[in-house]
Amino acid sequence: MPSPARLRKHGTLNILGEWVYASNLWHINRYSASMAFFVGLFLAFIPVPGQMLLAALGAVMLRCNLPISVGLVWITNPLTVPAIFYLAYQVGALIIDVPIKEIEFALSIQWVEEELLRVWRPLVAGCLLCGLFFGSLGYFVVNVLWRIRVARQWKKRKKRRSQRS
């Protein structure tokens, strides 16, 4: 990760102000990494334009790692969006007890408008639920893996110290 001094030297972020140089936005520690996974994965499931901007704002508000948060929203990219949002739609339909409708694809603005009017409630419910689930899962997995890594490092250090004596 680049240091705040290196970022200041580059200068392109100066237009955003001083807040962009906050240390937790660029350093990796247990909190900033695990919370960045929550922010990035949660927002990856929210079907709005500007996910990267929202992830950056979320990282700033929660003082977590900015590059990880912004990078993780790219889980929903043009190749994965149909499958991810169809899964979210199915989850939402199951949760709010709405029958799952067959969707016949057509590449037109009219089709998008009509289909969104038919499926918006289960889609939004499913996106929020999936975002909360996968964001929380990412948070806890990173947190647990971090703790396991630290525990192993402590054991190795203890073993090295005992071998020296």
UniProtKB/TrEMBL annotation:
Residues that span the membrane, as ranges: 35-62, 69-89, 123-146
Domain of life: Bacteria
Keywords tagged on the record: Membrane, Transmembrane, Transmembrane helix
Domain DUF2062 intervals: 14-155
Name of the molecule in the record: DUF2062 domain-containing protein
Organism: Congregibacter brevis
